[in-house]
Amino acid sequence: MTRRPRILVIGAGFAGVECVRRLERKLGPDEADVALVTPFSYQLYLPLLPQVASGVLTPQSIAVSLRRSKKYRTRIIPGGAIGVDLAAKVCVIRTITDEIVNEPYDYLVLAPGSVTRTFDIPGLAEHAFGMKTLAEAAYIRDHVISQLDLADASDDPEERAARLQFVVVGGGYAGTETAACLQRLTHAAVRRYPRLDPSLIRWHLIDIAPKLMPELGDRLGKQALKILRDRGIDVSLGVSVAKVTEDEVTFTDGRVIPTHTLIWTAGVVASPLIGTLDAETVRGRLAVTPEMTVPGHDGVFALGDAAAVPDLAKGEKDAICPPTAQHAMRQGPKVADNIIHALRGEPLEPYVHKDLGLVVDLGGKDAVSRPLGIELRGILAQAVARGYHWSALRTGVAKARVMVNWLLNAIAGDDFVRTGFQARKPAQLKDFEYTDSYLTPDQVRTEVRTAEAEGKVRGKVTGG
Ligand SMILES: Cc1cc2nc3c(=O)[nH]c(=O)nc-3n(C[C@H](O)[C@H](O)[C@H](O)COP(=O)(O)OP(=O)(O)OC[C@H]3O[C@@H](n4cnc5c(N)ncnc54)[C@H](O)[C@@H]3O)c2cc1C
């Protein structure tokens, strides 16, 4: 009996969703079965996450439904891949109800993205928040407002001062936008707290690098720095964190900041799923060819933040694409095309894309952008930043939600509601980003072997 080839896509982010959509459009239903492993039923539009943290956008606005496409026919497996046995061609999945499923494939697309990169700094894992998931953004919003509420209720000047200091680590776009958007929120909120002295609110943005967002170029980078400093954000470059406790952050320059808020955005590292594969990596990302295939493993593709895709457009030896949505959303369709080429016995195509630049929304009317090398700031940069993100949202409903939220915020101003939904839940990076859920390569092999012996690999006919 001949059966349809099984294409398994892991991760419903920019890369995974764009890949699936192209497969749905270009492949006939009888040509292949497509399945998508994802813990959530949405694609998260990450670049707008700081605006959820600051309450400009509601969480639902940037959680783009996976089930709205007209051509939608992919089987969605609700869960996370916790290991892949490349030799057996089986992916081990933990479903959202904590069951283990062994899913065989003929073609595998690895697009699980990245997680927050941390270092061995005392107290960091216990006390830092990341800015990578919708839950983290919603949690941080509640946390920041709760600091204002607690400071307002306290008569202890030391506690007040500590509650009103906030530290963001990471001067890339994620950290800079987060600090800028949240500072704007607290600045607006404090007017509703007549007992609080606004001058006690201090935001610190620090980075070990000597420059903020070097991708912006010298002039625009300096302008971004000036905008932040003019707004009262204390930016320290060449500085990192030495130690963290529940109520203090010690910087490497010796300063000790009394605070209950440390937001850690100092870079990303490929999803821990990559470590379960026992395959070659480049700077922690899975090594792939320019066609995004994993060398030595037939039918396996990897892309997005999780993969070290050669950046052919740069023309430099060993250059790899930076971990950006811009690349991930273009690599997705290219991988889909290459799978279709492979199915039809045609040659694969390399991925080539020239970077289009960067847009950075600093909240309100402040922004800096560098589309196609043109340097913009102020309202024009803001229009380009918002226009770019708005047009990149995949569905009309998501576009409408985001536009309505922006208009509402422009007319009615910020809102300071603390929902309290997650107040008593564990709030460590590993809880939000599930970094401790993965198997070791040995555990993957044992799991798959046992499942095969017990006939529990889904749809796999053994012994034939
Ligand atoms: C705050 C912030 C702002 C940013 N701003 C910009 C910007 O302005 N411009 C830009 O180009 N880029 C920006 N980026 C970077 C950009 O968002 C990423 O490069 C992009 O999301 C990478 O796409 P991806 O598909 O590889 O991963 P993601 O979009 O992260 O998608 C990965 C998906 O896989 C899922 N997943 C993870 N592990 C598993 C698993 N084991 N099993 C199943 N599913 C799994 C995740 O839930 C997620 O849905 C920003 C990032 C952040 C955090």
TrEMBL record:
What is the scientific name of the source organism? Streptomyces seoulensis
InterPro entries according to UniProt: FAD/NAD-bd_sf (IPR036188), FAD/NAD-binding_dom (IPR023753), NDH-2 (IPR045024)
Q: Which domain of life is it from?
A: Bacteria
Descriptive protein name: NAD(P)/FAD-dependent oxidoreductase
Could you say which protein family the record assigns here? Belongs to the NADH dehydrogenase family.
The GO molecular function terms of this record are: NADH dehydrogenase activity
Has keyword NAD?
Answer: yes
Chain ranges of the FAD/NAD(P)-binding domain: 6-332
Q: Name one Pfam family in it.
A: Pyr_redox_2
Q: Record keywords: Flavoprotein included?
A: yes
Entry-linked Gene3D superfamilies: 3.50.50.100
Q: Which UniProt keywords apply?
A: FAD, Flavoprotein, NAD, Oxidoreductase
